[in-house]
Amino acid sequence: SSGINAEWPLRPGEKHMSNSSILLPLVPPSQVVIKSQITKVIGYLEPPYDLTTITSDLSYFFPAINIFFTGIPKTGCSNWEEALLLAEGRIEHNHNPARVAAVHGGVIHPYRMSNYNSSSQTVNSATSIVVLRNPWTRAVSGYRQKLSSEDVQGGKMKFISYRIVKDIRSPDDKNPDPLCTFEEYIRYCVKVGGLKDRHFAPQKIFLNINKMRYDKVIPLEYADLMANDLFKEMGKNITLFSSYDKSSDPRQQSSALKAKKWLSDLQTKDPELIDSFYDIFKEDFKLLNYSNFSDPNFPLPLL
Question: What pTM was computed for the model?
Answer without folding.
Answer: 0.89
